[in-house]
Amino acid sequence: MKSMDQTERIIAELEAERAELDAAIAVLRRKLRPVWRPASGSTAPEGAAKAPRGPQRLPFRRLSVPEALRMYAANGASGAQAPREIGEALRAGGIKSRSPHYTSIIRTTLRRLGTELGWKKLEDGRWEPMPPQSSP
Q: How far apart are CA 31 and CA 55, in angstroms?
């Protein structure tokens, strides 16, 4: 009987840990959910969440351009976009730049690191997010 009680106690502890992990995962998923503020005259990508109040509405704040491009490709970019459109989405998501050549920064980063960051260049010069690769 003692081993049965001990087994039940271990199961209860593991279930409590699992509940804590599930709650932590849910928080992370909410934080990573794509949130975009479209530029005037454009619409948000289908399935993008409405921008909440507070710091969550700027998912790219404090990220480098490559980090933001990777996150945008994985979580919210839909369809082919010109570097200018991608740059507008990143700015709407919190990227800050005072450079007068901001679009060139986006274009160059995509050209150099695009595949690594989850983007594929099309023949017309636009870029589209690559589908997620499944693990074997």
A: 10
